[in-house]
Amino acid sequence: MTPRPAFTVAVIQDGVAATPEETLAATERRIRDAHAKGAQVICLKELFNAPYFCKRLDASRFDLAEPVPGPTTERLQRLAKELAVVLVVPIYEKQAPGVYRNSAAVVDADGALLGVYRKMHIPHDPLFEEKYYFAPGESGGAVQPKGARGPSGEAGGFMVWKTRYATIGVLICWDQWYPEGARITSLLGADILFYPTAIGWHPAEKAEWGAAQVDAWRTTQRAHAIANGVFVAAPNRVGFEAEAGTDGIEFFGHSFIADPYGRYVAQAETGEATLIAKCDPALIEYTRRNWPFLRDRRVDAYAPILNRWLGA
User: What pTM did the predictor assign?
Assistant: First the structure.
């Protein structure tokens, strides 16, 4: 078998500007900069072109959503084609009247929209009121334009996309705490799992819990890399975002790219950053030969996992 070439990925860690247009313009500059440094597959943060609006309930914020394809994704499709890069574009999607999703559009290097991943796990926590704003992704659904593949070939739910440079899987933020999504997406053939994220500190908790929260966030995703023998890349947002009636959220950054051994190959602190790393599929093969976790799974014994709880 002819070895597959290495591919270079970038994740962009940033905040948001005063307006969506300013944010989009700044994002385009960062994409161009990442391309100039060799990036072929570039992933943005969760809900990249808006403040994190889920800190409280406000029906007017449904107006931030737009269709996919729509003005923002079409503009970035043109940029992807110009630069010959693959883009993962996380965005607030209006799928239909009253049906809104936390989504990520996947754009190939020719500018084609390959499909849309819709966040499967939706949190409900103080300052993260996402169940109000987002319907969860579903297993099965409308046929993707091209390039998407899920279990048994259906569209929707967990999927991978065979892009010009690599086969990629996309999951979003809260999905990162669930090994099932990482495992299914890896079994579909992903070379790399992208986790666009918006996670931060409650100011009142930071002193006691802040370091542990960052470490837990990174550790669980590195564990997905190790358990599945894949690369993992997680771009988070940064900056303090205020919200009337609350203490706001300080988004903590610490984006990273990890290899199939869970080693950091690129990592950031709390400021704006673009991380770039070369990912060699040969390392996936090497890792899985030495740690054959996929081979040794007892698929005949896992039916109980379909239950929500098994205890008394």
Answer: 0.95
